[in-house]
Amino acid sequence: MEITAQARVVVPFQDCDPMNVVWHGNYFRYLEEGRTALLDTIDFGYMTMKQEGFMFPVVDTRMKYISSARFEDELIIHAKLDEWENRLKISYRIINSRDGTTCVKAHTTHCAVGIADGQMRYASPQCLINRVNAKVSL
């Protein structure tokens, strides 16, 4: 079973350049919306992550810009959990709901870091593995 989630964003004025096109750096914020929805799906949102003693900073990201979004476009951010045993790898597709075109394809990679010691873990903590396994077995 794949673990996926969706989020929606209506492009606000402040995310656009003078030509009403989304400035490229703002797509990273839209990925965050998809990632938040995905983490909530496995009951491992940011507050739970913190309570378990971990943070998962981005250690790598790739983004391919395909089609521009504009002011007031509604975007659907699809997020899919690709890896979780040694790191989190999440893939994304941002689609313009107006016409179904893909605006961006991307992925992010995150490693677990202990909050108490600031040390990177080379395997995902069991608290994450258990949540993913519970979701996959449904």
Structural overview:
The chain contains three helices and seven strands. By secondary structure, it is an alpha+beta fold. It has one domain (4-136): Thiol Ester Dehydrase, Chain A (Roll). A five-stranded antiparallel beta sheet has the order 1-4-5-6-3. Strand 5 (88-96) and strand 6 (102-110) form a beta hairpin. It is elongated and about 45 Å long.
Short description:
This protein is α+β, with helices and mostly antiparallel strands and 138 residues long. The chain has helices at 27-41, 46-51, 126-136; strands spanning 4-10, 54-55, 58-65, 74-83, 88-96, 102-110, 113-114.
Compile the SSE list and pairings:
Elements: E1 4-10, H1 27-41, H2 46-51, E2 54-55, E3 58-65, E4 74-83, E5 88-96, E6 102-110, E7 113-114, H3 126-136
Antiparallel strand pairs: 1-4, 2-7, 3-6, 4-5, 5-6
Oligomer: single chain
CATH homologous superfamily placement: Hotdog Thioesterase
- The share of residues in extended strands comes to 25-35%
Number of helices: 3
Might you state the CATH topology name? Thiol Ester Dehydrase, Chain A
CATH architecture: Roll
Cross-sheet strand order for the largest sheet: 1-4-5-6-3
- What is the chain-wise order of helices and strands? EHHEEEEEEH
- What integer value in Å does the Rg equal? 16 Å
How many strands appear in the DSSP assignment?
7
Shape: elongated
Helix content: 10-25%
Q: Flag low-confidence runs.
A: none
Pfam families: 4HBT_2
Keywords: Hydrolase
Family: Belongs to the 4-hydroxybenzoyl-CoA thioesterase family.
GO molecular function: fatty acyl-CoA hydrolase activity
